[in-house]
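Entry 12.
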Amino acid sequence: MEVRIEESWKAMLKSEFEQPYFEQMALFLKIEKMAGKTIYPPGPLIFNAFDQTPFDKLKVVLLGQDPYHGPGQAHGLCFSVQDGVPPPPSLINIFKEIEADIGLTMPVNKGNLTHWAKQGVLLLNTALTVRANEPASHSTIGWTVFTDAVIKKISEMKSGIVFLLWGNHAKEKQALIDGNKHFVLKAAHPSPFSVNKGFFGCKHFSKTNALLVQEGKDPIDWSL
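Predicted 3D structure (tokens):
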């Protein structure tokens, strides 16, 4: 797999790209494609989260789980969908919380979060690919080893990063983060199944901005 990724990340993650597990994963994806499987997101967008948020611009890490597995949705940013695709239920709930928290009315027909990414929000899924219509189909092929390494490196090499961990899967990653030098905000997942168990009312958007300002950084403009 030719890794198309922004230069600062490429340099920092070079050792991961050379690991045997990564080579095996690349081979696995190649074989799937040769077998006619449809994989999301498209190849050039697999590392889009890194391309949109260079390491030196990083301020916030939002962890997702799996790319969307429907046609035209996934583009390498967690929770985000490509232009022209209506926001899925979890994203609609995120927008509802933004409106309740900071009074920002979000668009009903747009779910592309690139504007957040360009301001320093790393929209990182723990698995970076998925087979069409098969959720979690690539969750055990090695991606979690890679994304765990990314989280650890951010924790080690940065300070004052705000980590947003929504849902049990994301909360498990807290063990990789040094809580003495970073901020960890946890809530339920925004999916319709759990949104009322502590996502609505979490106020993570205003809290994130308050922490960034406290660190002397510009707050995030959460509009699209």
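Annotation: The longest helix spans residues 20-34. The beta strands are 39-40, 60-64, 121-125, 130-131, 162-166, 183-187.
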